[in-house]
Amino acid sequence: MDPEKKKALRKQILDEKVFGPMVEKSFNDADLDKSGYIEKNELAILLKSIHTSLNIPPPSNNDIDKELKRLDKNADGKISKEEFRVLVRDLALFSLDNMTN
Hints:
By secondary structure, this protein is mainly alpha-helical. It has helices at about 5-15, 15-30, 40-55, 60-70, 80-95.
């Protein structure tokens, strides 16, 4: 990917007006029970799906626990929409940084 296009995409990812609706949709899709939070079982489903999409081995239970702990800033055992934003932004930036064409 051309560096200018990559730079423009990075700017969009970091722009809340552009990024916010993507987070909202992703959160609502991942919140299977519509509780307003992503619980551990929903995070496991999401992470396994992401790993499958990236053609990498599925995360272990330990990996899922670590990710939950990393994202769950208030330690309530679930991920709020704000906490989820970190995951989505990290994934978007990771994908962008690892694009080869």
